[in-house]
Structure formats: structure tokens, C-alpha cells
Design goal:
seven-stranded antiparallel beta sheet; Pnp Oxidase, Chain A; 4 helices; 35% strand; Split_barrel_FMN-bd; mainly beta; Flavin_Rdtase-like_dom; oxidoreductase activity, acting on the CH-NH group of donors, NAD or NADP as acceptor; FMN binding
């Protein structure tokens, strides 16, 4: 099968996000200038550079009570900071609760019963029990083609790692089993690893 997206795919559901998988989930936490906290998952998320460490996430829809985007992007535009919380398999249900389209100003930490902690380098909360959390300062918001498509880039200014996830000096993802996003309504967890040496190692 071949299709051009401009012409449609002719299938019951869009296959695009099932093709580009698995995707890590960036659970983005923010605090607006009025001190209201927000937490929302984004599956268009990844690390993009080592030095300095940088990450990105993309928001692809809008809410009626935000100016052409969603809460996370609107608050980051205002404050210039955010945290990325890594989602473990055990947190799948509370992560899903936080994905609901609550009105602007709603604290998803409270709605989902998630304990928060205070970041050290930015004025922002993070998920206290997350396997890892990245404190970030905004570097750039890029408007992409499409009505509500924005990519947010941030420099990582602080890194939290849960102690039980460190084994022999390595951050071991099998200790918490990262939740990954697949297509449609599907997810997966990472529980097994294998290694490959590069030819020039």
C-alpha cells in the first residue's frame, strides 16, 4: 500500500503514529505566573542533543480556553520553564488521568492524586515518584505547518534520578519499565534489553 497524506489513507484509522513507534512519553509539568500547576503527557517527545543536554516535545492540538494551543505550551510561553517527567509502567493509569482536557488552571497533580516535588533550578513542580525528571529552560518554540502544531525545545538544567533506578552506576530502565506510546490507543513497556557494539568500538 502507498498513500499520499494529502489525499488520505482510506483506512479506518490514521496509521501514521502506528508506523513511528515506539515513542517515549514526555510528561510535561509547568507552573503559570499565578502559581497554578499543570501536568500533561506528550508522545511526540525526545532528547535532541548531549552538550548542552536538550529535549523537545510537540503539541498538536488546541483547547478552546487557550490561544490556539494547549495548556503546556501556553504556560511555557509565559514562564520559559518546564519539567519533563519520565513515565514508568506503574504510573500508566495516573498518567492517563492527566491527559484529560481539563479547563485551564486545573491542577492535574491534584486531579490524578500525584505527589509533586519542587524543582531546584526552575520554578516548576515535578512528579515526585517519577523514575527521572528533567528540569528545563525554554530555548525555542517553533510553529510547525498545521493549525495548532508547535515544537518546544528546552535545555536541561537539572536532572533527578530515583535512587532505585541506579545499578552499578548505570540508569537501568528495566527497574521501572518505561511506558512507550504506540499507535491508536496502544502502549507498551520496556522490560528486556540487548546491546550492540558499533563496528568502530
Amino acid at each position: 500500500m502507498f498513500y499520499e497524506p494529502k489525499d488520505g489513507h482510506g483506512l479506518p484509522h490514521n496509521p501514521f503514529n502506528a508506523i513511528v513507534t515506539p515513542r517515549p512519553i514526555g510528561w510535561i509539568s509547568t507552573r503559570d505566573s499565578d502559581g497554578r500547576d499543570n501536568l500533561a503527557p506528550y508522545s511526540f517527545f525526545n532528547a535532541v542533543a548531549y552538550v548542552p543536554p536538550q529535549v523537545m516535545f510537540a503539541s498538536t492540538s488546541a483547547k478552546e480556553d487557550r490561544d490556539g494551543t494547549k495548556d503546556s505550551v501556553a504556560v511555557i510561553r509565559e514562564t520559559g520553564v518546564f519539567c519533563v517527567n519520565i513515565v514508568e509502567y506503574a504510573m500508566r493509569d495516573v498518567m492517563n488521568v492527566s491527559s484529560a482536557g481539563f479547563p485551564a488552571g486545573t491542577d492535574e497533580f491534584v486531579e490524578a492524586g500525584i505527589e509533586k516535588a519542587e524543582a531546584k533550578t526552575v520554578n516548576c513542580p515535578y512528579v515526585a515518584a517519577a523514575p527521572a525528571a528533567l528540569e528545563c529552560r525554554l530555548t525555542e518554540i517553533v510553529k510547525l505547518p498545521g493549525e495548532a502544531n508547535f515544537t518546544v525545545f528546552g535545555e536541561v538544567t537539572g536532572v533527578h534520578m530515583r535512587d532505585d533506578c541506579l545499578r552499578d552506576g548505570i540508569f537501568d530502565v528495566t527497574t521501572y519499565q518505561p511506558l512507550t506510546r504506540l499507535g491508536y490507543r496502544d502502549y507498551a513497556k520496556i522490560s528486556e534489553l540487548f546491546s550492540l557494539k558499533r563496528p568502530d568500538d
